[in-house]
Amino acid sequence: IGNLGPVLPLGANDAGGKLQRDIRVRPWRMKEEKKIAKLRTDNADLGLSEYISLILGEMTQSIGTIDFDTLPEAGRKLAIESLRLGDGYYLYIWLRIQAIGKDLELNIKWPKCKAEFPFVADLNTVEVTLPESPEKLSYEYKFRTPIPIRGVVREGFRMAPLGWSTLKSAAAEGSKAASIQSA
Predict the structure, then answer these.
(1) Taking Cα atoms as reference points, which of 178, 149, 174 lies closest to residue 162?
(2) Is residue 161 scored above 90 in pLDDT?
(3) pLDDT score of 177
(4) Which residues contact 94 (CB under 8 A, 6 or more apart)?
(5) Within a 10 A sphere around the Cβ of 16, how many other Cβ atoms?
(6) How many percent of the chain have pLDDT more than 90?
(7) pLDDT score recorded for residue 61
(8) Which of 110, 104, 89 is nearest to 4 (CA)?
(9) What pLDDT band is residue 57 in, cutting at 50, 70 and 90?
(10) Which residue(s) pair with 23 in the sheet?
(11) Using CB atoms within 10 A of its CB, is residue 106 exposed (0-12), middle (13-18) or buried (19+)?
(12) pLDDT at residue 74, rounded to an integer
């Protein structure tokens, strides 16, 4: 992330279909903190992934020419939920670095002996691989034998990067079901 900077790995399409990758986030000030607290209060019934989408929508200023200041809350949420999963995570980590800093303090617990030790992860060292083009990330997979899934016989599926909105389905149904439904 440190080498790539404020650039989404895959990018989002604007209204004209042009790929946008540059991102700008707001500085995390008291004004933004109050807005985010209000979002949580007003949306107490939302799951974590939906709440994070609202935070990203509030704290993102722009993705390329997509100006979040001109979008209503629902438009910002839609723009975030339209991102691919990797871009959503990238934007979330980038915002976290800008708001709090690159160091993520963790207490690691060994599974066998239960001993704990502190570890500081540098979020700027998260490795990000950029594809040659987003189109090369998807392909069709055909089953040798069709299989029934929820009453529908499937002959194959399309493998492609999942969308950020898949997290909402994953929280509701479990990640395997969300992955199969989104394919």
Answers:
(1) 178
(2) no
(3) 45
(4) 1, 6, 23, 25
(5) 7
(6) 54
(7) 96
(8) 89
(9) very high
(10) 63
(11) exposed
(12) 87
At 183, list the tokens: 């394919």
pLDDT of residue 178 exceeding 50, the answer is: no
Contact partners, residue 159, CB within 8 Å, separation at least 6: 138, 139, 140, 141, 183
Q: Report residue 157 as tokens.
A: 């599926």
Task: For 102-163, give the DSSP string.
Answer: SEEEEEEE-TTT--EEEEEEEGGG------S-GGGG-EEEEEEEEEEETTEEEEEEEE-PPB
User: In one letter, which amino acid is 140?
Assistant: E
CA distance 46 to 82: 18
In the chain, the amino acid numbered 91 is L
Q: What is the pTM of this model?
A: 0.80
Residue 5 CA to residue 19 CA, distance in Å, equals: 17
Beta bridge partners, 141, equal 157
